[in-house]
Amino acid sequence: MTNEVLIEFQNITKTFGSITANAGVNMDIRKGEILSVLGENGCGKTTLMNMLAGIYYPDGGKILIGGKEVLIHSPKDAFRYKIGMIHQHFKLIDVFSAAENVVLGVKDGSKYNLKNVKKRIGEMCDRYGFHINPDKKIYEMSVSEKQTVEIIKVLYRGADILILDEPTAVLTPQEIRKLFDVLRAMRADGKSIIIITHKLNEVMEISDRVAVLRKGKHIATVNTTETNEQELTEMMVGKKVTLNIDRSLVENPQDRLLVMDLNCTDLEGVKVLDHVSFTARSGEILGIAGIAGSGQRELLEAIAGLQKLDSGEIIFNRPKKNLPVSFYHKTLNEVKFLAKEGRFHYEDGTPVDLSGKSNSEIKKLVNDGKILFNEDEVMSLRDKTPLQIRELGVRLSFVPEDRLGMGLVGNMDLVDNMMLRSYRKGNSALLNRKKPESLADTIVKDLEVVTPDLHTPVRKLSGGNVQKVLVGREISLAPKVLMAAYPVRGLDINSSYLIYNLLNKQKKEGVAVIFVGEDLDVLLGLCDRILVINSGRVAGILDARTVTKEEVGFLMTKTDGGEGNANG
Amino acid sequence: MLVTFLVGAIALGVVLLYGCLGETLMEKAGHLNLGIPGIMCMGTAGGCFGALLYMKGLAQETDAKWLPLLLVSILFSILFSAATGAIYAFLTVTLRCNQNITGLAVTTFGAGLSQFIMDTYVPRALRDSYFGVASKLFAKGIVNDPDANGVLKVFFSHGFFVYFAILLAILFAIVLKRTRVGLHLRAVGESPATADAAGVNVTAYKYVSILVGSAVAGFGGLFYTMDYLKGSWENASTIEAFGWLAIALVIFTLWKPGISIFGSILFGALSIAAFVLNGTSAQKELLKLLPYVITVVVLVFTSIRNKRENQAPGALGLSYFREDR
User: Which candidate, A391, A261, A393, places its Cα nearest to that of A331?
Assistant: First the structure.
């Protein structure tokens, strides 16, 4: 590594509406180094790099390349300065071969000849240690192969500065090792590499320097050899900010929703939920913290009846007495979990303690009907559709992450969107629009929704108002369980507080609230307990009143040992 | 009998081939153009209008020469059909209107306008005398002996437009498969966002392919009226039906111009069978259904096999707007 500065950011600022993504960032990138850009979700690291790659244009400040100010308006401009970015979502054409994708859009004056393209790809592979079949179609490729094609695509265009956005998020440990070898080979070749990441162990392993960003600001750039994971976590999460959110004490909590040993794999065969167990209690806000894509969405969708499970059980509690556990066909793991939670008693009323008992002993106890439930009514939500869940009488409200995709219909007005949850109630052939209309009216008034009238398509409302409509509708169902995924994402401060207050009000009314958030300060200030999810596993369930941001941040980002640890 | 049947099958197939090639080009750029029947009507009107202008300038009809007649006709045919295609392109590319609805509107518009132009500007009296002469020139083949038979008659007795169509199909196949322009065009149809990010001018590719595709489809109409129907405009409105068949042919040939040469002749044979074979009119009507039935079967078959290369372009029918993220 030389100390020659290649790129310099001077006071870079970027805002999206009322949200500041980057504020006065000053940092540099050197020739022949691997620089990690580290930060939490939404800290502005991808936005900053997108400005270098020509996707966004800065609102203020300067970008200097080789000491000269440059204007990068498009990815094409970026390539002129030999900058190439590999995005998280690959931009490849599925039915094209690797070679066709690589050469797409290249105008280097040479004759179009796939044979030459393939030869050049082969040379690059030899040089940096890739393996790719240039004739293979993209749709036949693994994620790792697709990533390789993206990297070759950038190199083919002569990039000297490569930006990789979360390159390891989708890779297996073996593939990560291979990628890192390639990156090191490229560094040795004098290329500068920027990795956007939030994985500390990878930062420590691969990078020469680390730039830490927090809430859009550049905190520091340090040499990897002179720092450690502890220090980086502290820089990443920062000092605790006390927010002015009321948090009442939990009154008379009852177990409302029991999630036991959930397992779930996605379409590509990757495990997205890995033995997830927890309990949501009434009158309590359970926060879920985690890096984006750690399984939060799948977890909520599993509870809402939208996600197919490999195994596990979801129990909704409504008091009911003395039924033997064998009645519910529980697996051994589930029985153990329930026993540990103190959920069983023997016929004589003594609590069940299974510690020290062998599996066969436990099985016998269960099969003989000796173990009884403490609770009065439990119903399984597993493998039920949202409609079946509703027909069971379970009042479960879900504010999904994708408001206009899953929550509301953008082209329909407020009244029609209210009816999505209630149209089955009527008995006549014609819909009764009076009730939903008055509900919409109430929501608009109570939550101060800014809309021209009740008959405006919701897609025309601003993000905050769309969210208010959605949350308002879900709350109007008087739920027993309220799940909200990133309900304040993209909202300004006032709207955010309005949502926090709504959630708190639900909590006071005895609703079990599950809140998936990304801002640790909010999670610490609003929730009663925080469940940290990390790569589909529960990394810990913590008391939000006593835990520190560093602890949560550490649990979110740590990678456990064994195969998963690229440090090996 | 068989020779006449094959000659007719090839001729009618070529009508479909032009429509199919034009539509394939547009669909490869991601534009499902249901305006093809209308564009073919306009191509017919343009070609006839051009022929009329040329014949009018002559001292007497029999002075007409092959090359200038064809050039003028082709020029006006291109002008008319490309202008109609331009309406479609402007609406769907620039204004991002729904492609299906725009296409249907263009078909209605093209069919009506072509009828209006012919009725208003090409007097019936002139049509018969002029087009009778012109169509003979259009149909002038390599072998013109009416008594020729066998292979000679089947393959070499056709007019210029038959061979031109086959050359175009081969050219399209090569361009799509083996050139940078073809690669970019396919990329635009598969994923305009990816093509855009790679520096391909998506709008330009869409416009050019729609305009060129429209012009090519228009030739189908011109050939049909001037050559196949021997210049009788009165039956020219039947071209609309062949326009729809051409769109079905695109699916049948799996968006591959090479295959479309043979697919079009097969479709031509099936269409003409209804006229050649003996049978009740109901049976004949059923026979006319066959190409559509086969298309559906092919569609089902390719969907089941689910081979990605044989599917429609990924972004077919979708408008592209860069700022949609």
Answer: A261
